[in-house]
Amino acid sequence: MKLNKSKKTQILLLLIACMFILFTSGPTFYFTIYSWMSGKNEIQRISQLVIHNESNSIKILHNIADWLDENIEYDQSKSYQFGWLKIRRKIPPNAQYTVIVKRGACEEYAVLFKAISCELGFDCRVIHNPGEDHSWNEVMINGSWIHFDSTLTSDNRFNNTGHYERPRFEGGWGKKLSYVFFQDKIGEQYEVTKKYTNTGTLIIEFNNSKFPIFDIDLIIKSKSLMEWKPDKYKNPIKALKKNNNDVGQYQLELGGNNYIIVMKWGLFKSNIREYEISLQENEFKTLYVSFARA
User: Fold this and answer.
1) Separation CA 283–CA 281 (nearest Å)
2) Are 31 and 98 in a shared domain?
């Protein structure tokens, strides 16, 4: 059966499209599938490697961090170049993926550190501080959750909760933390901000409402990094998001910082209110929000 010119052109274009997709997305797809198949074995291999016949728990944790420092290239981008191949991570930070591509930033370090330490029998969790763009770990040691940050030097990474806010001239980062939390296995968030900074209490109270408003999204954006490194950070960063299914109030424990408070509600969250506030440590502040119609 002979194909007419139009059919041939369509087939040719389809083949070109398939080749383009294969060339551009093929490496990404390959590394995603390969990491799913081989990442677990690689994590098990590394877990045995870092023990070094060591029995001291703290030294083993440092060995894990040393391995990450020596073998994982710190890379904040989501695109990685392998020779002439370019791959783009299209999945959330994942230990098996990170151990295969051997690239990543703080959250990739944290999820891989957790995977290796859990493989060795430690109880470990990932700590998130999105408003100041960082993640680290806590490890259960002698019945207590202890700070451990594998992106820091060996002198600073263990049991050093004050490092992030300590002034630079004292060896810290000089940040101001806004909100710190971890997630359980089903994604429920648990706040641990007070462990890393002194907090203030912000109450957001909805008042004088003459009509019911449900399903309100509350977004807290931190201006901390804009003030810390204004040349790099041009916009406030989302520190947390909450949803209120009824008219009432939010009560939040936040670090001393300048914030943008955003509320969205209505069909497609098209109604938006924004407020700018400054909250000091140990301060108790109430933000009254009226939804009354004029």
Assistant:
1) 5
2) yes
